Amino acid sequence: MGRVIGIDLGTTYSAAAVLGDDGLPEIIQNADGETTTPSVVLFQSFDGVDEPLVGTMAKHSAASDPDNIVQFVKRNMGDPHWRFDSSAGVSYTAEEVSALILKKLKQDAELALGEKIDGAVITVPAYFDDARRTATKHAGVIAGLNVLRVLNEPTAAALSFGLDAGQDGVALVYDLGGGTFDVTLLRIEGARFEVIGTDGDRNLGGFDFDNELMRLVSDDLAKQGAGDVLSDFLLSSELREKCETAKRALSNVEKTSVHMSVGGKPYRATVTRAAFEEATSSLLRRTRELVEDLLDETGYSWDRIDQVVLVGGSTRMPMVRELVTMMSGKTPARGVNPDEAVALGAAVQAAMEVESHPELVGSESAAYELPAAVSGIEVSDVTSQALGVVMLDDDGKDYNRVVIPRNAPVPSEYSQEGGTVIDNQRTINVQVTQGDDPDLDFVVIIGSREIPLPEGLPKGSLLRITYRYDFEQTVHVEVHDMTNRRSLGEFALERVANMSQEDLDAAITKIRGIDIE
Question: Is 129 in the active site?
C-alpha cells in the first residue's frame, strides 16, 4: 500500500512529513535535500508550453525574472478574480498555482519514500474562512492528492508539540508565519487535544515585516541618490530578496547591510535591529492585541496557561520571543522547530484519518495500523468564523443572524424552522454568511442555494433547515419537510468565491498534463 503524509502549505515555505515506523512524525526532505520548499513558482515557457519550476531554484530567479514568478499565492486563495498569466498565454488561478506547489511536494515525497502517496492532510491558518479552506482543498485535488482533511495549523503544531513534550496542561500557540498570524488556546490531557479558542489575521505575517524593511532600506537608498527603488519592478524584486536575507541576519546580529546596484552605481544601506523593530512595532502590536482578545473572549488569564509555543518562521525574530515572554511571564517552549512543527502534526493527523477511515485511501490501506505512540489521540477543534444566515428584520430589511458563534466546537449544527408562504411553493432561497456583524456590509456571503421543494405543499408547511460546520469548518445545508417527515436532502452551497465542479475538472486535466521541475 502507499503512504499518507502531512503537508504544511505555507505562504513562503512549504513542508511535508510522514509518520515513521516508531510512531513519530519526521520531515520528508525534498529532491534538493532540504526540509522546506519555497512556495515559489517560476513559469518557464519553451515553444509556447509552460514548464513550471517550483522551489529553491525558482526563488533564486525571483529577482532576475520577476515577471514570470509567483510568490505568496496563499494570500490569494479564495479570491475568484486573481489570475496569473504566463508568457505562454496561459492563465492560472490561485488554486492551480498552489496545486503546482503541492504536486512538487507529492512528487518529492514519493521519490524520498519510494512509495506512492495515497493521501494527505493539508494545513490552513486557523482564521481561514470557508472560501479559503475550500480553495485549499481544491488545490490538493487538482494536484492529484486525496485530501483526507484540512487541518488548522496551530492544532497541527500542538499535536507535534504535545507528542514531543508529553505534558498535560493548557497551551497557547502563537503562530506567525510568512503571510498569516493565528493564536490558539488549547488543553492537552493525555491523548486528548481540545482547542478552546482561536483568533488571528490572515493578512499579517513575515511578508508584512519584509515590506516595512524594504521601505526602510528604500528610504535610505533614496537619501543617497538612488531614487525610488520600490517604483521599479525589477529593483523592487531584488530588494525584497535582499531584505528577506537581512531580516534573517538581524535575528542574530544587531546590524547588517543591504547592497544594491542602481543605474550602474553601487549603494549600501545599513539597517539596525533597533530601527527594524521600531518600523514594525505596529505589526507586532497587532499580534499582541489578537492574543489579548482571545484571552478576554475565552476568559483565560496567563496564570492559567502552562505552556507557550512559538510556531512559524517569523517567530525567530528576537522581538517576538521578547514580546511573548513579556506578555505571558513565561519562557516559550524550546525544542519546537517553528518551520517543521505544522507539517509534523499534519502527518500525525493523516495517519489518524486512515486508521479511523481506511476507505479514504482505498481498500489496500484497510489493514493500516496506527503505531502505539499515537494510537488513541483525540483532537477537537473550534470554529474560527461565526456562521450566519441572511434573514429579514421586522422592517423587511436583510440582516445577518449568527446561528453558530465563533469558537464553537466543531462539528456544530443549528436548525431553524419556518413555513412556506404560499400554496405549492416550489423553492426556498438560503444565503449563508461568515462573520459576527449583523450588518451584511461587514460579513461575507459565502454561498447561496435555491432549494427545490416537492409539489403540493400547502401554505404554512413546516420546513426545518439545518446548517452544519464539519471538522474541516466546511459548511453544509440540509432541509427536512416536517409535514411529511422526510429529508429533502443535503444541498451543496453555490460558493461564489470557489470553483464550480466544471472548473475543477478542467483544472485537474490542465495541471495533470504539466511536468514539474
Answer: no
What are the residue ranges of helices labelled H in 130-205?
Answer: 130-142, 153-165
Report yes or no on 321 lying in a domain. Answer: no
Which set of grid coordinates corresponds to residue 165? Answer: 513534550
Same-domain check for residues 403 and 352: no
CATH number at residue 423: 2.60.34.10
Catalytic residue among 50, 108, 118, 153: 153
Q: Are residues 229 and 131 in the same domain?
A: no
Q: Is 8 a catalytic residue?
A: yes
Q: Is 77 in contact with 132 (CB distance < 8 Å)?
A: yes
pLDDT tens for 461-507 read 998 989 888 877 777 888 898 988 888 888 766 677 788 889 999 99
My answer on whether 129 and 101 are in the same domain is yes
Domain extent for 263: 206-279
Is 130 marked active-site?
no
Q: Which is the catalytic residue, given 96, 175, 199, 208? A: 175
Q: Is 22 a catalytic residue?
A: no
| pTM, entire model | 0.88
Q: DSSP of 372-432, one letter per residue?
A: TTTTT-EEEEE-SS-EEEEEE-TTS-EEEEEEE-TT-EESEEEEEEEE-SSTT--EEEEEE
Strands 427-434 and 3-8: unpaired
Counted domains in the chain = 3
